[in-house]
Amino acid sequence: MSADPEVVRAWVEGWALSRQVPAPVATGQGWRVDVGLPEHRVRYVFADLDLAAVRKLAESLEPPGAFIKACVGSEQLAASLPASWGLEPLHYMMTAELGREGPKPPETPKGYELTLDRQGQVIVAALRDTSGEIAASGRIALAGSSGIVDQVVTHIDHRRRGLGRVIMQGLERAAARSGATTAILVATDDGKALYSALGWDLHAPLATAAIRAGST
Ligand SMILES: CC(C)(COP(=O)(O)OP(=O)(O)OC[C@H]1O[C@@H](n2cnc3c(N)ncnc32)[C@H](O)[C@@H]1OP(=O)(O)O)[C@@H](O)C(=O)NCCC(=O)NCCS
Predict the structure, then answer these.
(1) For residue 148, what are the β-bridge partners?
(2) Which of 18, 55, 77, 135 makes an SS bond possible with 207, Cβ 3.0 to 4.6 Å?
(3) Which atom of ligand 1 is nearest to the CA of 194?
């Protein structure tokens, strides 16, 4: 299963918008994002894997906070890296077609209130319970004709009550009505179960490796 570089490019662009970090820089074979946090300084993202090029890159990077992500299985990425790098859990790039209007308006479960707040190119969804606490939230960044979903989470005390579904339907509908035709995200295992139930398609695996602290 090989990834479409255009889908990966849109995801990297939307992720940077969502996290309010500098726009991705094309490196020829992939993209670099200068995230700038102590624990997450820089990330390189590849749609495909050129083993020799990725190994050379990995050997040139210094700890801490350097990540390499590629749309391949974890073993494939590990095979291209020096021992100073460790694997993170495998994630999944997924896509959905939004259509003109997106899904129908979500039916918010009793006792919760949905808000959708546009902040520049990012739409933020939140579901609050009757005490005003946030029970679930998520965001979607608008990058060209793509909407990139990010940071979807339901508080552990509120899971499996349909809140993740409402957040997703709210975000997809808002993005479609703002002109997005395709939605893209990278899912955890929990997220993959939710998005599959909502009709999203698996696009490609996304393996991640991080340089170990203390390695040179
Ligand atoms: C993923 C997550 C947001 C799901 O939120 P949620 O509010 O529990 O999801 P919903 O109740 O709306 O689930 C709707 C449907 O999705 C599927 N689903 C959701 N979570 C699932 C899980 N952990 N395992 C299996 N199916 C799941 C089910 O079909 C579910 O319907 P059902 O409960 O009637 O069976 C939540 O588990 C979470 O916050 N996880 C930790 C953070 C995370 O991984 N976020 C995703 C980042 S990509």
Answers:
(1) 141, 184
(2) 77
(3) 16
